[in-house]
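Title: Comparing notes on inverse folding

I've been comparing how different people in this forum approach sequence design from structure. To keep things fair, I'm posting one structure and asking everyone to reply with a full sequence. Here's the target:
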């Protein structure tokens, strides 16, 4: 078939010699989608936690965190201005994992204290969770700023939040506590002493018994008596 004959056979169709079919362009590859700010923050904290656990505070750098998190240094510094700010955010995250504060609701004080201190957290999980605090305490001699970060973003905030909850209970007439701040310090000492003290050869049931004893001693000392027949745990 000649070229002219082929062209004649195509008359009336949407193909012409003047406008041959154009090749399909390959899709353009754009920039990678930018992570949402919350995801960037999560990545940075996860990378910092891992590096601190592996190398310690002194050897952890912002460059290393950025590489581990697969973030640019510019992005990392937009989220956290310094390594100290990163550690402060980790301490705040740890505090929230320890204490469910502020606490809302009308739970009886003994039930509320169990929930505030998350006493049902498995001991193995609690040990892993507390690794950051052990690291800070171990390195605070060489890096005094670590102790300041821990106090400012951990115990100080926890103490204030717990004192506010106790003050609310006192205002409602549920607890008889003249000094909520003092009572909050006592309760923190009692609960963390019971939760973190690990006697040699102790069993998990011993830890649970110490926790329940601490709660009972505190609420009774604060003038609250659970109703007769009330379940010890809810």
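Reply #1:
Here's my take.
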């Amino acid at each position: 078939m000649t070229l002219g004959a082929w062209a004649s056979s195509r008359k009336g169709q949407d193909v012409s010699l003047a406008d041959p079919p154009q090749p399909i362009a390959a899709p353009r590859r754009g920039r990678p989608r930018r992570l949402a700010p919350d995801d960037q923050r999560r990545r940075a904290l996860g990378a910092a936690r891992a590096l601190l656990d592996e190398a310690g505070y002194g050897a952890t750098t912002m460059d290393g965190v950025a590489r581990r998190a697969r973030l640019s240094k510019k992005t990392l510094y937009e989220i956290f201005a310094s390594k100290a700010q990163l550690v402060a955010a980790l301490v705040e995250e740890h505090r929230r994992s320890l204490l469910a504060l502020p606490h809302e609701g009308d739970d009886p004080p003994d039930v509320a204290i169990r929930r505030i201190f998350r006493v049902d957290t498995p001991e193995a999980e609690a040990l892993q969770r507390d690794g950051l605090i052990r690291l800070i305490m171990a390195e605070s001699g060489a890096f005094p700023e670590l102790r300041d970060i821990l106090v400012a973003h951990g115990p100080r905030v926890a103490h204030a939040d717990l004192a506010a909850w106790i003050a609310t209970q006192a205002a409602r007439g549920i607890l008889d506590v003249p000094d909520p701040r003092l009572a909050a310090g006592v309760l923190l000492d009692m609960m963390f002493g019971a939760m973190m003290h690990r006697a040699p050869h102790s069993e998990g049931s011993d830890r649970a018994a110490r926790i329940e004893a601490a709660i009972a001693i505190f609420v009774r000392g604060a003038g609250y008596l659970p109703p007769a027949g009330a379940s010890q745990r809810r």
